[in-house]
Please model this.
Amino acid sequence: MLMKGVTLRGLEVFEALARTGSVAQAAERTGLSQPAVSQQLRNLETALGTDLVDHGRRPMVVTAAGRGFLARTEAVLSELRLAQSELTVMDLTHLSQLNIGLIDDFDNDLTPRLTTILADNLTRCRFKMITASSHEINAAIEARELNIAVAASAGGVREGITEYPLVRDPFILVAPRGVVRDAQTAMDDLRGMPLLRYAREQMIARQIEAHLIREGLQFEARFEIGSNLALMAMVARRIGWAVTTPLGLMRAVRFHDEIDAFALPFGEVHRTISLFAASDWADRVPRDVAQTLRGLVQAQMIDPAVARMPWLAGSFRVLDG
Model:
């Protein structure tokens, strides 16, 4: 039993405050008013008998006691979010066939979990799942080879296809460990080091190139890499730097100790990862799958990313349907 005054809402508020340092931003993230956020924090600190944040500093900073409690809080909330997402898709037994395609950014963590959830619920169904890059997944849903697809959105309305936004995935800069001092000095620090690009046929490459053009930036086209892991390996081996997203970086766990990540120093921009379904497909099914995916992304990708890179809080986030 939780001690009196320790509530799930209080834990969520504390997590949000720890990540943002701001009552206003914590209120936005939790859907509460600012007075309610302050009250929830007071109740939690009173119950625990200690200050979790330094109330005299702006932005707020977690205390030594708060840091220890935050690690436990994040673990508890992560498990609860996973459990909640696994319960979202309750009954798909009416389906006779489901073909689903997922962006390969989800391969490491999310796809295995989603596969088992769906398999448990699709007891009478022919079930096919593929993973591929966004441009391949988008082409497959356009050709009606898939019932449901998860990929980067190209924007705009596509006839006969309904879009359910899932994740805001901001573009970030990644560089070899220790080369860049901070985001403000990044371009000076990287002078003379080549930009490593994704393969030009990939949607992420086209989105990055469009942003560079908007910002009036040109870089020598020396390297063009089709594999995200290969691209991250080249950054880790100090061959060059790259523009990627948190989803791309979090896939490359083996290289995290050799890579530094920063907010993009030349204009903020992001991509949207969405679920797409044929408009004649039963609406409840894609909505249920989308909600399950949002819970999985939050617990398995966003929470670990923000814990590692707190500056991503609020930028890398789940989107409401």
